[in-house]
Amino acid sequence: MENYQFPKGFLWGGATAANQMEGGYKEGNKGLNIADVLPGGKERYNILLNPGFDFEIHPEKYSYPNHEAIDFYHRYKEDIALFAEMGFKAFRMSIAWTRIFPNGDELEANEEGLAFYDRVFDELHKYGIEPVVTISHYEMPLHLVKEYGGWRNRQVVTFFERYAKAIFNRYKNKVKYWMTFNEINSGLVMPIQGLGFSIQKEEDKFQPTFQAYHHQFLASAIAVKACHEIIPNSQIGCMILYAPVYAFDSNPENVLYSLQEEQLFNYFCGDVQVRGEYPAFIKRYFKEHQIELEIQDGDLDIIKEGKVDYIGFSYYMSRTEKKVKTDEEASQGNIIGGVKNPFLKASDWGWEIDPVGLRISLNKLYDRYQIPLFIVENGLGAYDKIEEDGSIHDDYRIDYLREHVKAMGEAIEDGVELMGYTTWGCIDMVSMSSGEFSKRYGFIYVDKHDDGSGTLERKKKKSFYWYKDVISTNGEKL
């Protein structure tokens, strides 16, 4: 097809996270969170994937780019004006849990934090931009990590419920679209970010990981029910990291292995949050890994009653698998594993580029769940160069996004119900996986660098004007 028909009211926009853009890490009575203790640079990647992290700040050893980030905390009006200039219909953002409850276990919310997001939401509405808010996006209160053991502890469900209800009540007239946990399934490979604990070497990872998931599913379901009661016209979704899994070849062993990997990583969390029950395939997995969940009376009823309204998901790449692989075959840069796909090129960070995989993903998700889908992250992390005249010609980013928007158009023609598209990092931010500023995703360049230097000046890239045209024509002009 050449002319794609996107639905009327399609939510075009951009996506961010509080911990990667706000800065002001100690301002407004904010408490410390997980992101505040993660160092920048190559060390972060190793910390996320390896056991034994101590959740402490070591200024003599590391830098901490999230502490200032791009200073959205003070510059939100300037940034939102730029989003409005692009024509955003929606802005996906997160609320920092520790701005609202600095330690996470307080009884009363922090007024300074609540007031900050009031100002942000008011500024968005001034331009007619709908906020799409993630309740928890990789920034669990550090106190809950250290004192309670993160999501392994059932008490955290109560703390999350208190937090969720506080923001629902405060912003019930300002926020219609919500999501509970960012990339909830990522805890299977990065429990530090999503589940709030580091697997210790002597500890069996399976039992604590899936017990923590049970608590998150409870918390999500409780939040969904509360959101519907407090904000009757709201829509609240889950959010998963989705990467379709291809078999490396037609060897049935590899096909079966890729199916099992896809079930666990792509569908386990979605099945519980969308269907309201644990999927059949997980029972065998639990049996084979000696996992016995502590499930209290009424838990499964709560999960059944707290089914989400839509699926938000991130899509960056596909994943190719074979049952037995060598180190030489491993796909570089892909934190979720796999082997190199000979048919795909990769980004500067080794993430394989596969726009057709987005169409495949949309069809698979919609076929499985039959509820609306929302692509809330998709983008290209790349090195950007400023020319002598100050311009930034990021045609590689435009090419990447154009092909993914085409894939969305094809999926809509396939019959998929798609609510919107918010590109990841609409403005340059700290990278989640690498802690770098040099890994840039934005339509807006921010003068901030890996060594901490920079003026924080904002500058429009070529892609800024391209995306403005895409939005103004509702996807007709690509």
TrEMBL record:
Listed SUPFAM superfamilies: (Trans)glycosidases
Any Gene Ontology CC annotation: cytosol
Residues of the active site: E377
Record InterPro entries: GH, GH_1_N_CS, Glyco_hydro_1, Glyco_hydro_1_AS
Residues of the signal peptide: none
Superkingdom as given in the UniProt entry: Bacteria
GO biological process, one term: carbohydrate catabolic process
UniProtKB keywords: Glycosidase, Hydrolase
GO molecular function: beta-glucosidase activity
Matches recorded under PANTHER family: 6-PHOSPHO-BETA-GLUCOSIDASE ASCB-RELATED (PTHR10353:SF122), GLYCOSYL HYDROLASE (PTHR10353)
Family affiliation: Belongs to the glycosyl hydrolase 1 family.
Protein name, per record: 6-phospho-beta-glucosidase
Source organism (scientific name): Neobacillus bataviensis
